[in-house]
Amino acid sequence: MTPPATTPSPSAAELPALSAMPRAVAWMGLALLSFSAIAIAGREAGRMLPTSELIFWRSLIGIAVIGAIYARQGPAAAGPRTRVLPQHALRALVHYGAQWAWLQALTLIALAELFALEFTSPLWVAIAAPFVLGERLTGWRMAAAALGFLGAVVVVEPGILTGHLQLTASTGTLLALTAAVGFAAAMIMTKRLTRVEPALRILFWMQVLQAIIAALLLVIGGVRNGHWPLVAGLGTEPRMWGWIAVLGIAGLGAHFGQARAFALVDAMIVAPLDFLRLPLIASVGALVYGEVLSPGLAIGGAIVVAANCINIFAERRAKLSAGRNGA
């Protein structure tokens, strides 16, 4: 007599991951809420302050928080001292440019459009990494990037769905695409830096160097225009401090929550949760700012998300294959 079929029990390696799921979901929840807070705070603050000044104050908050973490760790822990300052400086400069473009676009286009285009960053990384980091360029990576590019085109020019391409990309859209490419370049530089530097040190130097870049640009602009930056306007806009604080703290919370979630469970589980950022921000845009989610934006955003899922699946498959071959 054939014994009844039984459901296979999770392996010993899978059990820790399953038990960590509630914590991973909680951390991703924090990240998603933080990303929405960044968008609102950045848009509101950007209406009252120049973008470089916004980045300066945000970076100062980041320096204070990370400095407190270093102080808590004590002298025995790895501190901020680095031997690769030029690499940190180049990454900070690229990330500054991307962040500037993102914050500028934030006040010009719908939140959902900005986030949909930002989600193309990992796809540009997938294409560039083989040439910069020596990783393998696979057919899956190329297919994911091509699909992501199609999604971005649909977001920017929805008329392509009906054959009525009008080429009406706005300044905000172009800034959002520039930010996506810049963030992709910063991701690749971060990956190279992680080979020799801990994550907290990378984050610390990014904040310090971005504050210096922003301060220099503001001083140069102030000298040309005959006024002192970093002070003007803040005294007459008390709520500005609140928006800046939200922007700085939410920025750290978003990336920390995301990193904690990815550390607890597999990327194949966490990434789909991260993609909830797009419908969430579309809802925020509709409820807070009355933004309308157009069919082209919805379809293009879905295509970009699908492309990212393909890329994640392909990366996981490649790692499993490499593990079996190495065994």
Mean pLDDT: 81
Report low-confidence residues grouped into runs of 5 or more: 1-16
Profile the largest sheet.
Answer: none
Task: Note the gap between the termini.
Answer: 38 Å
Strand content is under 5%
How many DSSP E strands? 0
Oligomeric state as shown = single chain
H and E order: HHHHHHHHHHHH
Number of separate structural domains:
1
List the defining traits of the structure above.
327 residues
What does this structure look like?
It is a single chain. The protein is 75% helix and 0% strand. The protein has one domain. Helix 4 packs parallel to helix 7. It has 327 residues and is an all-alpha fold. It is globular and about 55 Å long.
What can be said about this structure in brief?
By secondary structure, the protein is an all-alpha fold.
